[in-house]
Amino acid sequence: MLRLAILAIAPMLTATGCLLPPDNDVLQFEDDFEACDLCGWSLNGDVRRVTTYHPAEHAMALAPGARAATSLGIVRNAAESSWESDDGNWVELSTDCVGPGALELIPDGNGRLIVAVTLDDRARAPFARHWLNFPPLDPAVEHQFSMLTLTTETLPCQVDNLQIRISGGLYAY
Amino acid sequence: MHISLGRAALVLAALTATATADELAPPGTTAPSPLSVADAPPPAPVRGPRLQLALTGDLRLTHLDGAAGRFVDDAMAYGWRVAQARPLYGLGVDAHYLWTPIVDVGARVGYLTQDYAAGVDPADRMGIAWTTVAASARLRWAQGRPFIPEPRLDLGLARQTWTVHGQDDQATRSFVRVGVDWRLGTRTAGVMLAVAYTLTDHPAVDGPAPPVGGLDLAIGPYLRR
After folding, report:
1. Do B118 and A19 touch (CB under 8 A)?
2. Which of B165, B167, B170 would best serve as a mutation to test chain A binding (most A beta carbons within 10 A)?
């Protein structure tokens, strides 16, 4: 019996010995809405910080037609070698609106880009993780990102653990 | 003649040594004795130890909880970078009263803890701590013999502390634990090995609720007095 118990336990301990550290080598922006009440965001319409599944877990709730924006200071350097990729850049978020939504890069008039995310509000759904890829970026050119905007149209949406991951031109995923 | 007198003396001595005065006296000439001899009482049954105390190291394989898969999916959906139904570990103390018929009754207290998820910052964890108290009943069909598994049922309550981003949220949960105990040792001391499955109530959480049921393995010393 003791041998059976050891046989049962050993693989479990090996497989789940510790939680692996997250891969954050391309993480350029992250907001989990826990530190403060939407500080750093400029709001247009009904946008609030709400509690989700735990008293310590919060999200941004956007009413229909609302918009939230925050400034960025992300630079994607020009490529140093010909094999570098134009891919590997995305916005990652959790939301209770179905689908990943749409992402556009809009020039801000100062040579930089605004990352504009429109949430897919065709319907509500259980919270899910979504990834919105950037359009291909010319690796020979330096890109600067000055702002991130979130917009809803017809349904209220909650957004949590918002991230922007930029490869820097060195990696492709 | 001298020899005959000696034999007669020996016979008289033997008679007086093996017979009482009543037996030698003619019938009806002696009073009855106030002492009477009864049958010997049956030997008193030997009762075993009255109490058992056990201290166990506990491991609960929560990935065998029915909610484990959903927890991982939900945790990743809410943006945790890593999530696993990891085994809870901790300590337990058992006390059982053994002089009841058929079933040992007792109580168990325990403490289990584990981290289930990590955020972008590896130090940002989602953790669970379970402090439990339970009433226990164990079928005594081994009749004191070791190495025979004895079925056991625990009904209990747990004080759950669910920590997210460093903030605690407490709730009371109920559970049922069904399994068997093995006593590997003597009548008075040895090692207790237990295997059981714990079923818990469903938490009213719309989100990643860490699984806290599953297969229990417990091992530790016991004493019987």
Report:
1. yes
2. B165
Which residues of chain A are within 8 Å of residue B164 when distances are taken between CB atoms?
54-57
Q: Does residue B147 lie in a domain region?
A: yes
Measured in angstroms, the CA of A110 and the nearest CA of chain B are apart by 32
From residue B179, alpha-carbon distances to A47, A173, B150, B154 in Å are 52, 48, 8, 9
Residue A5 lies in a domain: no
CATH number at residue A104: 2.60.120.260
Global model pTM greater than 0.90: no
Domain count, chain B: 1
Q: Can you read off the two tokens belonging to residue A88?
A: 């590997």
Q: Is residue A140 part of a domain?
A: yes
Establish how many alpha carbons lie within 13 A of residue B176's alpha carbon, considering only the half-sphere containing its beta carbon: 5
| pLDDT tens per residue across span A7-38 | 545 544 444 445 544 444 588 899 999 888 89
Q: Tell me the C-alpha distance between A12 and B83, whole Å.
A: 15
Q: What is the C-alpha to C-alpha distance for residues B195 and B215, in angstroms, rounded to an integer?
A: 7
* Beta pairing class for A113-118 and A102-107: antiparallel
What is the number of domains present in chain A? 1
In a mutagenesis test of the A interface, which of B74, B120, B184, B192 is the best target, namely the one with the most A β-carbons within 10 Å? B120
In a domain, B159, yes or no: yes
User: Strand, coil or helix: what is A57?
Assistant: coil
User: What residue in A sits closest to B123 (Cα-Cα)?
Assistant: A21
Identify the domain containing residue B66 by its residue range.
51-224
Position B163: which residue type?
T
- Does the beta-carbon distance from B82 to A19 stay under 8 Å? yes
Residue A63 lies in a domain: yes
Note down the domain range covering A55: 26-165
In this structure, what token pair is assigned to residue B33?
A: 């004795």
Nearest residue, CB atoms, B164 vs list A20, A56, A160: A56
Encoded tokens for B96: 């059982």
- A128-165 confidence digits (pLDDT tens): 999 999 999 888 888 899 999 999 988 999 999 999 99
Which residues from A are below 8 Å from B59, CB to CB? 9
Query: A148 and A72 in contact (C-beta within 8 Å)?
Result: yes
Q: Is the CB of A53 less than 8 angstroms away from the CB of B182?
A: no
